[in-house]
Amino acid sequence: MNDITEELAKLHILNGADFIRQLRLIVSFREFQPVAGEINIFSAIGQENGDYPALLNAARKAVTFGYTVYILPNPRGIRTADFIFERKGVYKMFDLKTITGQNSVGNRLKESIGQSNRVLLNLCCNYNIRNLTSEILHYFESYSNAQEVLLFSGGRHLSIGRNIAESKGFIRLMMNTFK
Q1: For residue 127, which of 150, 165, 100 has the smallest C-alpha distance?
Q2: 8, 14, 157, 166: most buried, per Cβ within 10 A?
Q3: For residue 85, what are the CA distances in angstroms to 106, 118, 134, 138, 170?
Q4: What is the pLDDT of residues 73-103, one digit of tens each?
Q5: Residues 6+ apart with CB under 8 A from 1
Q6: What is the pTM of this model?
């Protein structure tokens, strides 16, 4: 059997049903161990990883929203996302961007291009809703492969697909969700 690094690398050339099959294969690898003291969080990295606290924080939030979370390794030479989320048999891969300061969402979204077409924005600060909305819309406009931005803010979460971001009601949706 191939190792997880080889399987992660294949994700860059797969799409559709083949991509989903690959995600399912990856989460079956023995590298994923249950995280001690957590429910529905599995990790292929250790606590010594510098990103681990931010990854675990976001994973805990995802679990409260009904996801099973797989924290991915970050092998050298391969741009990979941070998570595979599974909920109700649906698998998705997300790149985590933890937002701790104002005016950083746009740059953080740009960083995720090439890692995943789905981004998880974990907002750990108050962020101007109009700026956030504008930066998410710009991300979808400038990255044609972008499929979803998942927002975690406090106890709320919102999944924004391209069709939602490009709709007339997007600003109103954001204002109502995050007032």
Answers
A1: 100
A2: 8
A3: 23, 11, 26, 25, 25
A4: 988 778 889 999 999 999 999 999 999 887 7
A5: none
A6: 0.92
